[in-house]
Specification:
Helix content is 35%, strand content 19%. It is α/β, with parallel strands linked by helices. Helix 3 packs parallel to helix 5. It is globular, with a radius of gyration of 14 Å. The two termini are 16 Å apart. Bound molecules: 1,3,4-trihydroxy-5-OXO-cyclohexanecarboxylic acid.
Length: 144
Amino acid sequence: MKILVLNGVNLDMLGKREAGIYGSESLEDLYKRIDSLELDAEIEYFQSNSEEGIIKKIHSHAQEGYYCGVFNFGAHTHTNVAIRDAILAVDFPFYEVHISNVYSREEFRHVSFFSDIAIGCIVGFGFDGYEFALQKILRSKNGS
Ligand code: DQA
């Protein structure tokens, strides 16, 4: 089972950007942490600051044979119709994850262009959110 863990704009800056909100760990640290779980799945990591890069990755859903996605689109969450349309175009099942609790932040972060088409949303649990989403995908696959 292949799962795509996709991080969007500015998430390559984790560990450097707004540490009070996002913590001091980097994206590499997140990948290492997920790898250390030794989940029964093939996890592919992808990060891009470009809308085109993200859309092309999502379009490759069928040919890459992804079972599910764990997506954090960063600021694109609150604005991006094109990425939403790409997901709908290829029917890519996914969980939406946010490191911070977007609902305790500025009002523009309370809107998501993705939550209504996600299987589920996990916000405010830091890196644990990615882990919870992955565990849930595996549990659902096993029928529990
Ligand atoms: C974020 C929340 C977004 O509002 C913000 O633009 C990000 C990160 C999060 O993971 O908490 O870049 O998606």
